[in-house]
Automatic annotation (TrEMBL):
It comes from the Bacteria. Keywords: NAD. It comes from Azospirillum doebereinerae. InterPro entries: NAD(P)-bd_dom_sf. This is SDR family oxidoreductase. CDD domains: SDR_a4 (cd05266).
Amino acid sequence: MSSPRLFVFGLGYTARVFAERARADGWRVAATCRSEEKRAALEAQGIEAFLFDRGRPLADAGAALDGTTHLLVSVPPDQKGDPVLDHHARHLADLRTLDWGGYLSTTGVYGDTKGEWVGEAAWLRPTGDRQKRRVEAERGWLGLYRQYGVPMHLFRLAGIYGPGRSALDSVRDGTAKRVDKPGQVFCRIHVDDIATTLLASVAKPTLGAVYNVADDLPGPSHEVVDYACRLLGVEPPPLVPFEQADLSPMAASFYADSRRVKNDRIKRQLGVTLAYPDYRAGLDAQFAAESAR
């Protein structure tokens, strides 16, 4: 019996952690990237790599996808829609070896709940264009399951952090800000806990299922920066009112929504135990690992 084959559309920060966990379990991994240089680098690491982007579909989709047992899609939709669906929905519908598929979405599809808790069954009320495109992409992936039986699962991810992409890193490089917007809360999830959730779904697939992937402690972002500064033994940057924070349009857009995201479904249905149930546990572990080097 051959080992599972994972095909990843878009091997970014989160997808790579999942792919490395799969490789450690003996899976074969193939992935897409957008440049010839990146393709060569992935091949050198033992990952079969294919060029893909909007306007550049897989050169031979049948050959690239052949033998794929597990699919992960982490390519975000663009202004024209979901590029993977637009180019390769038909090929995926024809893929008879597929046992499991996952689409990485965002909790941004819920919009602004004014800090109230929200679960997977809630109405989707996205506030921005990026979030609205995510809702449409989710519909497309669920449609692929309902129409053609492609075994898809949706994972709505909270704010992702982990080594190289945490408050510790932003404090060190001088980009951390403490922004005060009263009543504002964010949800987060450690990248390792995302990989754990995906693997739990692989082990216990429920086709068409939707999962929130968030930790147990929503809270304001400035508290996370405070905690990172305490670990590093440095003075925190000044607390600045949101209106005076001089944020980029992208950064400011995250403050348009305030919500608390329920995560009980991944615990109850998938048996997930979070390694990092709050940002303190995640930052403590990262700081300890870095200090031990």
